Amino acid sequence: MTLTKGTLTKLGLLSSLYLSQGLPFGFFTQALPVLLQRMGLSLPAIGLSHLLALPWMLKFLWSPLMDRRAPGRLGRRRGVILPVQLLSALLLLALAVPAGGPTIPWLCAGVLCINLLAATQDVATDGLAVDLLSADELGWGNGVQVAAYRVGMILGGSLLLLVFDAAGFRITLTSLGVMLLVATLPIGVFREPPAAPPPPRESPSLSYWFKRPGAFSWLGLLFVYKAGEHFASGMLKPFFVDPRGAGLGMREVGWMIGGVGFAAGLVGAMLGGGLVRRLGYRRALLGFGTLQAIGVLLYALVASRPVSISALSVVCGIEHLTSGMATASLFTAMMESCRPEHAAADYTVQASVVVAATGVAAAASGFSAGALGYAGHFALAAGLAALAVVFVRVMFRGMEPVRVRG
């Protein structure tokens, strides 16, 4: 399709919102494991720190409220997004106040609260995306979603690792809060189109997903599709800095993720988003899922021998490329299966299943790496990613995800 000015405006707004989610989540998933490794925490403890993402798993509980709320003066979606992002930025700036940085308990508590706010923003943002994007724009919209989220994660993760290495906690957290404030400007000037809440008789009940034909098969696919990849990535940053692994310094880790990972993930997200409608959802999920499993397996091969920085860079690029393609295809299929009038609730139910699976997988990753070593752990993760492809082939043979959009 031709990208019109109106489409580009929508994509620009959504880019800023998904980047805003990626900023704190990048710090949590990329920078925090490295810092905890340097502080001497065990691999199981680092793995369990991923449970701080619990609000992302439970956001489906309050997602119907986002569809039921009246538009108000700021707008139905904007009225949630704007204050939540401002509150998140203020919380980050508050964590930066202590001169020596927050203690581990306060840091974890802050991360948990910010995840709660970001998960709430995500519900409203996904609803806004479904409201704004036409069926022909969904592929590009989800490519931009994944790409912008990855940019945010790179800025909040690898870039801030470099800042932390040079300036410490106070400047790092202050920088994160300021970046989030800047990313809030587009939604601040945006004027949301008028939208009425759904009629009371059509309140967006979660029970819809228990009655929908094929829903359990589809939710099962969502549960397994990204779990293997996150089972691997839960230990990837500790592997980078562990002397028993790659033994990289924080500066090298920052450039590895921020340079190689960012570029490859950006290309993968846009490529996957652009191809998914042409291939069809089933073929895209099968093809990109297979590539994702291969990308994870390459980490096992690198970890099984003395680590070469050049080889690790190539593997990191391949894995981020394939992961971006797989994620964009999955998110596009999820949006396509949403009822427009209940977009926030429908998308959030699906996203919560994905996050629950990936969170549990990441939390368990430390126990696996501790027992099997890094090479064995990555090989097991690749096997789990391959099983997800088998699930797609078996459960959706000749089928597409349930589609409700034109």
UniProtKB/TrEMBL annotation:
<dbReference type="InterPro" id="IPR004752">
    <property type="entry name" value="AmpG_permease/AT-1"/>
</dbReference>
<feature type="transmembrane region" description="Helical">
    <location>
        <begin position="284"/>
        <end position="303"/>
    </location>
</feature>
<keyword id="KW-0472">Membrane</keyword>
<feature type="transmembrane region" description="Helical">
    <location>
        <begin position="374"/>
        <end position="396"/>
    </location>
</feature>
<dbReference type="Pfam" id="PF07690">
    <property type="entry name" value="MFS_1"/>
</dbReference>
<protein>
    <submittedName>
        <fullName>MFS transporter</fullName>
    </submittedName>
</protein>
<keyword id="KW-0813">Transport</keyword>
<feature type="transmembrane region" description="Helical">
    <location>
        <begin position="147"/>
        <end position="164"/>
    </location>
</feature>
<feature type="transmembrane region" description="Helical">
    <location>
        <begin position="171"/>
        <end position="190"/>
    </location>
</feature>
<feature type="transmembrane region" description="Helical">
    <location>
        <begin position="253"/>
        <end position="272"/>
    </location>
</feature>
<feature type="transmembrane region" description="Helical">
    <location>
        <begin position="41"/>
        <end position="58"/>
    </location>
</feature>
<keyword id="KW-1133">Transmembrane helix</keyword>
<dbReference type="InterPro" id="IPR011701">
    <property type="entry name" value="MFS"/>
</dbReference>
<dbReference type="InterPro" id="IPR036259">
    <property type="entry name" value="MFS_trans_sf"/>
</dbReference>
<keyword id="KW-0812">Transmembrane</keyword>
<feature type="transmembrane region" description="Helical">
    <location>
        <begin position="79"/>
        <end position="97"/>
    </location>
</feature>
